[in-house]
Amino acid sequence: MALQAGIVGLPNVGKSTLFNALTQAGAEAANYPFCTIDPNVGVVEVPDERLQRLQNVIETKKVIPAVVEIVDIAGLVRGASKGEGLGNKFLGNIRATDAILHVVRCFESDDIEHVDGSVDPLRDIDTIETELLLADLESALKRRDRFVKIARGGDKDAIFHHELALRLIASLEAGKPIRAGEWTEEEAASIVDAQLITSKKVLFVCNVDEASAATGNALSETVAAFAAEQGAGVVVLSGAIESEIAEMDDEEDRAMFLDELGLTESGLAKMAREVYALLGYQTYFTAGEKEIRAWTVKVGATAPQAAGVIHTDFERGFIKAEVYTLPELEELGSETALKQAGKLRIEGKTYVLSDGDVMHFRFNV
């Protein structure tokens, strides 16, 4: 399964520049609002050094990493919830994503005009949060009205959805995003059905100047403090630097460039890992002569659920899973040696995956 995260923010904060750098998809970037009119979708590989380690032991024709789909969505302005700017078009696009990458301008520049005339990260965050709250309030009000008549007739499901809608409205009117509330599993399912934007988890992406890429700056520190209060994620990077990295074809050149800047990895790696952590995902691997592949599953997934990520038939007809770890493979040198040493475990339907498991599934449909 491919996770999908939407890049949002005010116009001219560096969203499209960052998108281009991360995906090399060539989305138009210009110094004026709404240069991105339709959402651009790019597939970003999730860097994972374990794939190379697997290939060092198991010779294979190809290696397929896990991916995150990045959606670059047009800049949001005040009044978007009422149709200003791209208004409802923006809001409809963001509802389809799993998480929000909220790009915040944390750099000064005389060449790039700020839509509000000055750089103030917390003000910018508040502008977008307010519009998303207002959009969700409108949706919650419609949901309340949708169920109220049926609820009056005594329908239990309608009563449940109506009462929850009233609670959602109260939260939104108080300026509290839905993700900040505590909801039961049943309530959470209803919220998903309602497609409320503020229920999605947020990763704040602080776009800083090149000199601040390694350490951040005073502006990004204010965002980090705000994110900590909100229970949100945060990552600091420089869109300008990422653009330069994206143009380098040689891996050694990239590594040297990062080292000169005091960086250990690119913004791509940081963002991808943070999205995974934010949404509670982990990776398992399949490995054979044809391919080595990383698969994405929720933390806490069982063996049948992991099999289902490959194909629903695998989950439905699950019999067992053969499981081993990468360190065990590296120590013994082959799957045959793992079997001989009793390190190839046979796990059933109740087995809960650990991050980095290497698995073969047996199924019957």
Q: What's the gist of this structure?
A:
The chain is of the alpha/beta class. It has helices spanning 15-23, 49-57, 87-95, 121-152, 156-173, 185-194, 218-230, 239-246, 251-260, 267-279, 303-310, 312-316, 326-332, 335-340; strands at residues 3-8, 40-45, 62-64, 67-72, 99-106, 201-208, 233-237, 281-287, 291-298, 318-324, 345-347, 358-363. Helices cover 43% and strands 20% of the residues.
Estimate the strand proportion.
Answer: 15-25%
Largest sheet: 6 strands, mixed
Mean pLDDT across residues? 87
Low-confidence stretches: 32-37
**Rg, alpha carbons:** 23 Å
Helix content: 40-55%
N- to C-terminal distance: 22 Å
E-strand count: 12
Q: In sequence order, what are the helices and strands, one letter per element?
A: EHEHEEHEHHHEHEHHHEEHHEHHEE
Number of helices, where a helix is a run of at least 4 consecutive DSSP H or I residues? 14
Describe this structure in words.
With 365 residues, the chain is an alpha/beta fold. 43% of the residues lie in helices and 20% in strands. It has a six-stranded mixed beta sheet, sandwiched between helices. It has a three-stranded mixed beta sheet with strand order 3-9-8, sandwiched between helices. Strand 8 (281-287) and strand 9 form a beta hairpin. The two termini are 22 Å apart. 38% of the residues are buried.
Keywords for this entry:
alpha/beta, three-stranded mixed beta sheet, 365 residues, six-stranded mixed beta sheet, single chain
